[in-house]
Design brief:
Two copies of one chain form a homodimer. Chain A has helices at about 5-15, 30-35, 55-70, 120-130, 150-155, 160-165, 200-205, 235-245, 260-270, 295-310, 325-335, 335-345, 360-370, 400-420, 445-460; strands spanning about 20, 50, 75, 95, 105-110, 115, 170-180, 185, 210-220, 225-235, 255-260, 285-290, 315-320, 345, 350, 375-380, 390-395. Chain A is α+β, with helices and mostly antiparallel strands. Chain A has four domains: about 5-95, 2-Layer Sandwich (Uridine Diphospho-n-acetylenolpyruvylglucosamine Reductase, domain 2), CATH 3.30.43.10; about 105-220, 2-Layer Sandwich (Uridine Diphospho-n-acetylenolpyruvylglucosamine Reductase, domain 3), CATH 3.30.465; about 225-340, 2-Layer Sandwich (Alpha-Beta Plaits), CATH 3.30.70; about 345-430, 2-Layer Sandwich (Alpha-Beta Plaits). In chain A, strands 10, 11, 12, 13, 14, 15, 16 and 17 form an eight-stranded antiparallel sheet that branches. Chain A has a five-stranded antiparallel sheet with strand order 5-6-9-7-8, sandwiched between helices. Chain A starts with a helix and ends in a 13-residue tail after the last helix. At the A-B interface, strand 8, helix 8 and helix 15 of A face strand 8, helix 8 and helix 15 of B. Chains A, B: This is FAD-binding oxidoreductase.
Chain lengths: ~475, ~475
């Protein structure tokens, strides 16, 4: 595809010269240019034509209208921290980066809501909320780069979903630009609005395929007064579930319920050179974070620890005595991804299951690997309180990368079949993007996919918005 | 419309004789028969042909397929406690009552989720959850009759939305039958499932126009340990907002934040023969409910009361000393509807606004009434922490009912215009149904309504499902 000089001039007149870049002109170095058309998936090679930086919803609409008139495909570009290829532009598209749209637009100090442009970096949103005496609770490793609009477009979760839910729960209103360039505004900043279909929920998690999210109003909450970390060793898988059940009876709010296997703990110890926090070996570990509001709450934690030790749900447990120790405990969980990715070659999966089906699924999965891929090991960890497992397959030393990934390609469908059998999802948090679209049918029926197609067609009749993502 | 004997036999063979009733046959008395085709709105006269009582999703699907083949319009019928005519059948329809679908289907004790048929009465669902050691938090006056499916179809709220959110937040999975009789199953019982558009949210709040909800999986939570009621007198409207803002800093969870005017308090005192709980007259009253977990939490409440008295947000306040007093306090809020409906003729409106726009809206509204309808008085109360006002216009004694309602018909559009100006919604909780569909455009843009129509068409191509509801 080549862009005519006339069209180049048109775009420049829409946005100004300094906010439009063309692949075949050299205002920006190629690596930087291409980085706006990719994400963290790294298996796709970006290749696209035009990079734009609109400053407001109206400009996004004008760029989309330009693309619509000229039948140019569009990829919305946020913080590009995704793991499913949802932000990849590799077929001559126009990329619409939201990076220059990062302003606070409005704030309601009474209800506690903040309206911002979608390109605001999540960490900055946290700051803006805190400066106003509030707290925005959706938090995860990539918040220093991710955009709030991208978080909404992928229905982001993170480590405290067990308490705060997914980001969907915190979105009051959205402004979006559809595939025709039309601006739709949903709900404003009110909480209750039972006036027909709540269309904003279609856009939350739609990965930019139905519209480009340009502004959002988020509900804020209050910051936890303080928190405590309880790190425990768990003797068997079913005790993890009993332990989680037991937390329902705790008088303190639980903010996180994360688990890891001995295998993961070992890898973190090796990689980060940290000691084993427990004196005896255990197959599983669970890290719990509770909110406390006063010192006497510590007694409740000790009494909880006593109960779960007595009931045998945990064989050992340690309560962080100060914030430094709390941080250290979190490292055993948060260091896993880095430890296994740097020292090993891994194939990642982010799946979810009903809690009670987890063990049967894992048994089936282990049987599958043992019989067909005896050298494969699993690094298993995740937000187990949400039913969310990060299941990473680790490459055996004697296998080449190419051979390993080729075998993983065969494992995936078998695993997805098992997930389907146990009523799980092939993507808990990361989305579908390009990476999993061929497997969508393992999580969604053909009737559902048909409805999704009809909705896509209604909002993006020329199939220009992030085409090829999600729908097979 | 008349139903052929062949079709009658067909339906009887689908469901069995005892679960199909025809208007022109006399198995059931007419009043009972008609009651399944109406709700609490009372302004529409039910008139329909066939009443059916399927027992499971498959049977609902078969009845819908029968209707589809014969082009018969369908009205789903739940607990019929709505206030917008959403369950009215008045044009020869087939009514599908969910009353015989009230079974528990599944329970996950670890995560805490319950799967039930949609016809389960909400109160019974509360019981089923409690028997299993959990709590379902969506609660309101009509839960003794309302169905959980109807609650979902209207995205029900209630008195504790400020803490627990609307029912939307508690729905994990749905099974629905679309307008073609197709069964769609959304999400099962998992929390996280980022695999494309989350279609279940379209059905939540769709008032039966996109599909009939037949089964649902609900997330449960834990019951508040105990609660305390703080009833306060507030000197002016802006102090209500400051007071709400102040609750954000409370270390105790706030479960309810309800307000009423002096006018409402007087009406409850007259009707229920209860004394004035305050020694001095105040224009506004706010009732707050807080969760407490231990006795020392009472100190926090006293200190909060001290703060809000010092800051002048309240002029007087009283903390319920026991559960009987708590109940008494709640009566001043919960008795309003009954008190004004029985002793007066009222025109109800259930609206919502951004908190900070409430006062300007109310000033505009008062100015409108004073200039054009000087005899009209307003009974104002509601879930103000959610931005939700129940604005009831009370008929002046010297006006006939007919004249009053005819004038209200003129007030409504003017009020809706003011709501639009202040970014509010014409229906916070009650939905649109038949009653407000002509005013939908005050809350939704024509572009949004167009998208709604396209979605309706995709899921109900013959426009058979609850036709004429929501969409003008």
């Amino acid at each position: 595809m080549s862009i005519s000089q006339e069209n180049k001039n048109k775009l420049k007149s829409l946005l100004g010269e300094e906010r439009v870049f063309f692949k075949d002109e050299t205002q920006m170095d190629q690596a930087t240019f291409l980085s706006f058309g990719t994400d963290r998936t790294k298996v796709y090679v970006p290749d696209y034509e035009i990079l734009t930086f609109p400053k407001n919803t109206q400009e996004v609409s004008e760029v989309v209208k330009f693309a619509f008139e000229n039948d140019i495909k569009i990829v919305p570009s946020g913080g590009r921290t995704g793991y499913a290829g949802g932000a990849v532009a590799k077929s001559g598209e126009i990329v619409i980066s939201l990076s220059k749209m990062d302003q606070v637009l409005d704030f309601d100090p009474f209800f506690g809501s903040l309206t911002v442009q979608a390109g605001m970096i999540t960490k900055n949103l946290h700051k803006e909320a805190e400066e106003r005496g509030f707290y925005f609770p959706v938090d995860f490793a990539a918040t220093g780069s991710s955009h709030i609009g991208g978080n909404i477009a992928t229905n982001a979760g993170g480590v405290r979903v067990v308490h705060y839910g997914l980001i969907r729960q915190w979105v009051l209103g959205l402004k979006v630009v559809t595939g025709t360039g039309e601006i739709l505004e949903f709900n404003g900043e009110i909480l209750k609005n039972n006036t027909g279909y709540d269309l904003k929920h279609l856009f939350i998690g739609s990965e930019g395929t139905l519209g480009i999210i340009t502004e959002c109003t988020l509900k804020l909450t209050k910051k936890p007064a303080d928190n405590r970390i309880l790190f425990t060793a768990v003797p068997d898988f079913s005790s993890i579930l009993e332990l989680f059940k037991e937390t329902h009876n705790m008088p303190l709010p639980i903010l996180a319920f994360e688990f890891l296997t001995k295998y993961c703990l070992d890898k973190v110890m090796d990689h980060l050179h940290v000691p084993d926090p427990f004196s005896e070996v255990s197959p599983y570990y669970v890290l719990m974070e509770f909110e406390i509001t006063e010192e006497s709450d510590d007694e409740k934690l000790f009494s909880f620890l006593e109960t779960i030790l007595e009931k045998g749900y945990v064989s050992d447990g340690s309560l962080a005595q100060n914030s430094r120790q709390a941080e250290t405990f979190w490292k055993y969980r948060e260091g896993i991804s880095e430890s296994i990715s740097i020292d090993y070659t891994v194939h990642k999966n982010d799946i979810s299951l009903p809690l009670r089906n987890m063990n049967p699924f894992l048994e089936d999965m282990q049987a599958l690997l043992s019989s067909k891929y005896p050298g494969f090991e699993i690094a298993l960890f995740g937000h187990i309180g949400d039913g969310n497992l990060h299941l990473n397959i680790v490459k055996p030393k004697d296998l080449s990368d190419a051979e390993f990934f080729s075998q993983c390609k065969k494992v995936d469908p078998s695993m997805f079949e098992l997930l389907q059998k146990h009523h799980g999802s092939i993507s808990a948090e990361h989305g579908i993007g390009l990476l999993k679209k061929d497997f969508l049918h393992f999580s969604r029926s053909s009737a559902e996919i048909e409805v999704m197609r009809m909705i896509k067609k209604a909002l993006d009749p020329k199939n220009l918005l992030n085409p090829g993502k999600i729908l097979p």
